[in-house]
Amino acid sequence: MLSQNPNDGSQVRYNRDRIIVVIGLGIITVVAWLYLINLPDDMENTMGMSAAMPGVIPWNRADWISMFIMWGIMMIGMMLPTASPMILMFSTVNRQKKERAQSYAETGIFVSGYGLIWILFSVGATVLNWLLHTNSLLSGMMGESTSNILGGALLISAGIFQWTPIKKACLNNCRTPMGFLMTNWKDGRAGALRMGLEHGMFCLGCCWLIMALLFVLGVMNLIWIAALTVFVLIEKIAPKGDWISRIAGIGFVIWGAFLFI
Known about the structure:
Layout (H helix, E strand, L loop, with lengths): L5 H33 L4 H4 L14 H22 L1 H16 L7 H28 L13 H14 L3 H11 L1 H8 L3 H25 L1 H4 L4 H16 L3 H20 L1
């Protein structure tokens, strides 16, 4: 008579949970990117004349809401895929705790905490977008910088930041999912939310200046949005991602210096 390994059932459940999480993250990411891909065709038309006359006609309420939604969805579409290793590890640890009848929480709560940090970042990005646009420093509401001084300063700042201890500390937390969870684990739903917020803060600390480069490259330049998403993912998961980050920092500084010439 064949005996069944009790670990087989657990492994099946782990795999099932991972598949559910991957599908969920995939759906959210695809929906976000579909929104971004279809946005440039009609955004300027639906926002009124302020896009065509920067610094002359102030943003109205619809402009503010539309730009905040755009930034929020863009941040989710860019950053959620880069957080997938951490989210999958959280799901695995959660499943293990559930199997042992220990306190656990839905993975969606952790993801919500992470996403909330980037939604709050989107508030600041929207305000900065307004300041730059109304002072004629962007080619449009979703355009690139019209000032070489601004562009150069942002690129050089981002490049220098890649070599700072703050960047290193934040990136290390993003690159070691198990280490982060072992150090920061908190039980229950409130704990899962706090862990999501904490990981979001580390991720924000790692990437905020990279996201600011969208004002140099084009707020809605889909090619650069995709490129920055891939770059952040490489920073987090590549074997030498920390050194790739630093080498890219040198490139940012050189690029920014050329803008001052």
